[in-house]
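Need residues for this backbone.
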């Protein structure tokens, strides 16, 4: 039963990540936490997300906004060490409660047409938030997703820019996690077992991306954000 659950989680999360540029950690991490210890679940998520981003980077490089990426990276340099401190010192249930409430509030505001302008300062702040969430709970996606949705970013640019940023953020976060929280054989063996599933997900996700229009993409975004917020609230209790 656990093996079937693992296969299903990785396959669906890989398809989602490939087709939208986000979603692997948002979908996979909650369920991986049911099968593995928190440190193992987060590190498996980081490893597999890194593989997906690396596999797609050449194909999506034309869609990357390099100026935004640079500011995201600068902001994340501040957020990454803050995140690992939170992971090691703070009650993660309280953290999830706060993040879950914030995600739900902002998603509802987006659904009711809250929009914002993209700016250099906001890029830095979003990068910092994403970095801190990556090393603390292994989920860099929500700040990026909320920001890009609020600025009405086209799906190609969203996917390309997000995946390129993930390539940096996941690699650095994995190194920080291993150094400060340690690792285990389970992480690496499970990731190797999941590799063929990720390849299948990469192919199916690419097919799905071609069929998704901008309106459907936005609906996908809201559903994923609502799912994330509700899940984090339930987990915190």
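Answer:
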């Amino acid at each position: 039963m656990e093996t079937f659950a693992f296969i299903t989680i990785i396959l669906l999360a890989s398809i989602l990540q490939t087709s939208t540029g986000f979603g692997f950690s948002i979908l996979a991490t909650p369920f991986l936490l049911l099968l593995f210890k928190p440190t193992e679940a987060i590190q498996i998520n980081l490893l597999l997300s890194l593989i997906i981003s690396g596999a797609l980077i050449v194909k999506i490089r034309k869609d990357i906004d390099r100026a935004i990426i640079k500011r995201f990276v600068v902001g994340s340099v501040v957020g990454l060490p803050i995140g690992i401190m939170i992971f090691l010192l703070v009650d993660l249930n309280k953290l999830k409660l706060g993040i879950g409430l914030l995600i739900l509030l902002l998603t509802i505001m987006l659904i009711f047409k809250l929009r914002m302008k993209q700016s250099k300062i906001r890029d830095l702040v979003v990068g910092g938030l994403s970095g801190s969430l990556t090393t603390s709970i292994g989920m860099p996606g929500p700040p990026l997703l909320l920001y890009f949705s609020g600025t009405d970013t086209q799906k190609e640019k969203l996917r390309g820019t997000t995946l390129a940023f993930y390539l940096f953020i996941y690699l650095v976060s994995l190194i920080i996690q291993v150094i400060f929280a340690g690792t285990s054989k389970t992480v690496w063996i499970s990731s190797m077992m999941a590799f063929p599933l990720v390849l299948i997900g990469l192919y199916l996700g690419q097919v799905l991306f071609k069929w998704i229009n901008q309106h459907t993409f936005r609906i996908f975004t809201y559903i994923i954000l609502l799912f994330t917020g509700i899940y984090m609230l339930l987990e915190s209790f």
